[in-house]
Here is the input.
Amino acid sequence: MGEIRPSAHQQCSVQIMQRAQLIPAAVLKREVAYAGFLRRLLAHLIDMLVIGAVGVTLGALVIAVAPDNFTALANVAPVTAAIGWAYYVLFESSPARGTLGKIALNLFVGDVHGDPISYPRAAFRYFFKIFSTLLLGLGWFMAAFTPQAGASRRDGGHAGPSAGDLSRHRPGAANRARRLLGRGPLGRLGPAR
Here is the structure.
């Protein structure tokens, strides 16, 4: 009498939580690898195409609306720069954990433990990238020619260990997607050969 028994739903929830606690963190993150320089460079080029297309579209709209107003045309560059900042910061701090270029190449941005980065950290990454570019691209060269720096820094070697965040690659993601979709190595339907 007076004994309180948990419902079946509560018992199931407890069992699931107990199982989740038994899986070590190293097992959960074992498919994560550092992204290589060329993969990050290609992702950066894709992102620049997206931002460049936005800038060209804005410029064309300004010319169409006010063809003789050079002041309005001069404002296209700062507006495009602000859109680029928002693009990088919002995408990298979002649940997607990367820009469209990174998503296309199965890259994601995370801290040194593989966890998502915050909005302020993403903003820091972006401004550190600009700073590195202003230093004659020193960070870009470091990422290309230094194995440790290249493996641990993002698009051109900018924010890495000093910021405590990295670009990483999910190496099994393409193979899993190929198996799930039933596509071969070149996108053909059928089993992979």
